[in-house]
Design brief:
The complex is a heterodimer of chains A (261) and B (326). Chain A contains nine helices and ten strands. Chain A is of the alpha/beta class. Chain A has helices spanning 43-51, 73-79, 96-108, 122-134, 150-163, 180-191, 206-212, 230-234, 237-243; strands at 5-14, 17-27, 32-36, 58-63, 66-67, 81-83, 168-172, 198-202, 215-220, 223-228. In chain A, α4 (122-134) crosses α5 (150-163). The termini of chain A are far apart. The longest helix of chain A has 14 residues, at 150-163. Chain B contains 15 helices and two strands. Chain B has helices spanning 2-19, 26-51, 60-76, 81-103, 108-128, 130-133, 155-178, 180-190, 192-197, 202-228, 238-251, 256-271, 281-295, 299-311, 313-319; strands spanning 146-147, 150-151. Chain B has a two-stranded antiparallel ribbon. Classes of the chains: A alpha/beta (261), B mainly alpha (326). Chain A binds chain B through residues 51, 53, 72-75, 77-78, 82-83, 85, 89-95, 97-98, 101-103, 105-107, 110-119, 121-122, 124-126, 129, 141-142, 144, 160, 164, and chain B through 3, 175-176, 178-184, 186-187, 190-191, 193-202, 205, 208, 317-318, 321-324, 326.
Amino acid sequence: MSRRLELRGVSRHFGAVKAVNDVSLVVEPGARHGLIGPNGAGKSTLFSLIAGQQPVTAGSIIFDGRDITKASMPARAKLGIQQTFQHARLFLPQTVQENVALAARRSKGVQGALWRPASSYKQVTARALECLSLVGLEDRAGTVTGNLSHGERRQLEVAILLAGDPEVILLDEPTAGMSPAETAAFVSLVQGLPDDLSIVVVEHDLEVVFSIASHVSVLNLGELIASGSPQQVRHDALVQAAYLGGADAQDVFDTSPRESA
Amino acid sequence: MNRFSAPAGFVAAIVVLALTPFFATTFAVSTLTQILSFSLLAASVSLLMGQGGMPTLGQAAYLGVGGYAAGLLAIHVTTDALLGLLVAAVAGLVASLLTGWLVVRGRGTYLLMLTLAIAQLLAQVANSWVSVTNGSDGLIGVPHQTLFGASLASTVGSFWFVLAVFALCMAGLALLIQSPFGHTLRGIRDNETRMRALGYGTVGYKLAAFGIAGVVSAVAGSLTITETQYMAPSEMNYIASSIALIASIAGGTTRLWGAVLGSALVVACQVLLPEAWQGKGPLVLGVVLILVVYLVPGGFAGALSRVVARIRPRARREGTRHVAKA
């Protein structure tokens, strides 16, 4: 069911700033792919390029053999590429169940139906509750989302993703701001997700990355500097340099004359 | 509990309204007629703002489009009121889709400014296209509309017709708000970017809402013709639109019956003021709006809901947000 995602020389430049530069990587079906790198390495930008939130400056993105470089964000979500956001983006005034139901209605194709009450679509309700119980939020279905704790909101993010029947999910710093207990619970939640689902996770907490990912890519200053198994990456000299602050700060600011914007 | 009692309450309200001509004065009935047709305009604003998160200062323009369409039809072709409604609705749909295509791409203040600009543009067309619209004097000499050959000239006759159309439109909007489409609109209102990330092409849904609101407003315009046999550029400019916006906000934008309460307030400020206050309607309305915004956030509908919630706290927790247990 799950399909292959491939980035070919993907770049995103803001004037002279190369937020993401010539990144090529492959996410195999069912992969557990970690994406790490210091602050400002371009991880979140890379995610937004994959999800279609912003356009690439160069390169192409292939999913399931199809070039989706020009596809809009909603179109990519329909194809099955979905993301969580670094800062949880939820429908705060609505109930937890309604948050998930919005995703479930879209994946069931009934989101534009006009006359029947939304509550009469039993398959949507069932799917929403199923996804909530997968992440352990079934008891909170009727709660207004704004009243959830930080950790619960992260769980809800995952439930929303699952309800959208994704093929590839992009988790952007899912455990940021979580307590150690919440982090541990979240890691086991992700470990328990269906095997055929491809997962790409950006994370600062390397323990989390190494316990989830079977393949790790390292970004620094917008470029891919290493890619391999957690073991290989852990011992890579470039990675250690990047994390220990060995990278030359001059690289951050391109000193060549700025192109006219 | 709400899902079961709301339709019953709605039907009861319509029945009571239908009986008013038997005990109320002609003036009261004609005031009610005005409130009902204006409510449809306010409800279309509520649909856009309360459900879709799109504030508008131009909705009366589509009332004008519908009013002119129905008025011109009555003058030149047929006085049939149902055909008038149909032609007005189609004209409103076309006008709102053509202009909405641009509007729904804006957000927040920009969207508001776009609606304002388009409304003024349409009002100016009505003003300048004298050969068709008779310019700033408005359509004069519109004959009374007829229903299946019977004249709707009497106050009571036009009241019943307006009430029936009002009831149908409100029921349709209520169904719409409960439907998946309504939930989609509220999702867009609360977090449009997230909706796009979920796979919703949000522009299309917003445009659909704009088209539906345009149809409802145009129907209100056709009812204005039924009731007053008159339509003029001043009925469709930004001042008229802002009064509809005020009615929607005062009543509570997220509930349909809020639009009716708000419209009652607005019409009352125009026609029910004592002799000495004649012409000071806008002033009174302004003061009332300030009071509502500060004292009853969420409008009358919000205040009433809070009272109901206090009386029936269990019902609110379990019922109003459509939480279904599988």
